Description:
26% helix; alpha+beta; 4 helices; 4-stranded antiparallel sheet; 23% strand
Amino acid sequence: MGKIVIEDLKVCYDTRSALWDICVEIPLGKTIAVVGPNGAGKSTLIKAMVGIVKPLTGQVLYEGKPLMGGHAKIAYVPQRSGIDWDFPITVLEVALMGLYSKKYFWKPISKIDKQKAMHVLERLGLEKFIHRQISELSGGQQQRLFIARALLQDAECYFF
């Protein structure tokens, strides 16, 4: 079984260090929790791992290869604060975004793609909201929507 390896990771925001000297091996196929108080760097660590935040030093390896943002085997569910809730996009459109990493940019969304998205949205109790703008959902529904998007990526590793 593979693993994610973090070597000598350091992340700074401007001149302030948010993380430093992070070294860890995470086996794939396991559920791992990162816990700590507000401001401890939990979100920064995950953002660095998925390539949203660029580390000052160190690297993240996925099965021995550098992990860069947009990796097809990695799915990320952002915190609510990282979303533009006023963006004019529907529930179904957000869910379908989970399939984009497996499609060529010139190929339209197919009927089968929509069926896959509907199946996941049904499993998460969101099927009746598919035409709603995302800001019209409750906080819990919004989180489930981004979980649906991640599940549709059919990834090997999920970061929440």
